[in-house]
Every structure is written in C-alpha cells, then in structure tokens.
Amino acid sequence: MVQLFSRIRMALLVAGCVTALVGCAGSVAPEVQRLPERVELSGTFYRGEANQSGPQVLASLLSQQGIVITPGLLEKPLHLPGAEDKLQQNMQNLAREYGMVVYPVDARLPALLTQVAAGYPVMVRFSEGSAFWAEPRYAILSGYDRKKQKVLLRAGMNRRELMSFSSFESALEKSGGWAVLIQKPSQLPAAVDRQRWLKAADELAQAGQEREAAQARKALEAK
Question: N or C: which end of the chain has fewer CB within 10 A?
Fold first, then answer.
C-alpha cells in the first residue's frame, strides 16, 4: 500500500512538472514560436565598464559593419564626458555620419528576436539595477534560446549575459523601450517597414550622406 501511494504521488509530481513546462512554453508569443529555437550571433565586442556602455556598443556594431573604430575614438565625437544626457541621440547622429542607416525596431520581444534570427544584432537600452536604484545601460541583443526563454546580451564586461524573456522585457520597458539596428544602406531589416526605412534614409540624407541614402531607397525598391 505504501508503495502504491508513493507511485501515485510520483505520478502526480511528474504530471505537475509537465503541466508547468507546457504552461511556460505556451506563454511564448506565436511569432517567437515560429522562429529558430536557438540563435547566437558572432561579431566584434568591446568590453567596458557599465558607464561606458554607449560608446562600447556603438563601436562594436560599427566594427561589425567593417568600420575600423574603437570605443575610445568615439568619445570625443559623442562629446563625452559631459553630454551623457544626449548620448542616445548623439550615437544615432554619429552612426549616420559613418554612412549607416539607423532603423528603429519595436521594443517587443517578437520584433527584436525576428531581427536576431535574420542575423542582425540589435542595439537596445535597458534598465540595470534594483527597485531602489537603476540606470539605463546599452547592450547588443545578439542571441536567444526559445526553449529556455532567455536572451543573450553583450553588455559591460560580459560577452554572454543571459536574461530571461520576462526580465528583459521589463528592463526594456523601464528604460523607455528603445531599440535600433545599425545597418548598411543595402542591408534591409527582416520584415522591413517601408515608411520607417524611408524615414531612416531621409535622416541619413540630412546628415550629409546623400549617396548612402539613395542606396537605401534603391534597396527598398529592389525588394
């Protein structure tokens, strides 16, 4: 009789675990479930202290596009130290000066992971810290594991920082929900939004990169 109760209890525990796992899998958005199970992008990564995350991430992404650069070379054109409050806008302006299209991505997990699955690392801003003290940080979203429900960030000193889907979405939301691609003009994002790409091309032209802006428009026409 004792053995029978033990077997029943074990069966119930197993059933509970299976139910929990199914519940977790079902919580992933359908758009994410259609993506490859696991992706990890390679590429240049510059380590740095948390307060250096902006130049570090921008230099990493520009290097991946074939531009010879280091975080230190970006500090002066980004007006650092001193212009930390304008860092986000200054980084976008500087990327355009290098002939890159700055394409905003919806700060929703399916949209972000769709770009990563297509081979495009995403620059994101997230909140790091506790409920009592937190600061915005920049990172490269460069991978994910759909089964484990974790994203892979390259941030600060850590080349492989893992964060759960839910924690990542919360950290993004707390910092304002900002994410962009730094793309070559010929490099269309996955599921490209035509109006958003054309606006990004116009901003590239306004930065004095008319030839690159024309290339971006031509790439969209050829799609």
Answer: N
Domain ranges of the chain: 33-221
Counting every residue written for the chain, the total comes to 223
The H or E element spanning position 140 is: strand 134-145
pTM of the model: 0.86
What's the CA angle centered on 70, arms 50 and 102, to 5 degrees?
80
Q: Are 173 and 106 in contact (CB under 8 A)?
A: no
Share of the chain above pLDDT 90, in %: 79
pLDDT digits (tens, 9 = 90+) for 158-195: 999 999 999 999 999 999 999 999 999 999 999 999 99
Please answer whether residues 91 and 58 qualify as being in contact, where contact means their C-beta atoms are separated by less than 8 angstroms: yes
Instruction: Please name the residue ranges forming H helices in the chain.
Output: 2-26, 30-33, 53-64, 71-75, 87-97, 109-117, 165-174, 194-206, 210-221
Give the amino acid at 148: K
- CATH code that applies to domain 33-221: 3.90.70.10
Residue 5: its pLDDT value, please? 43
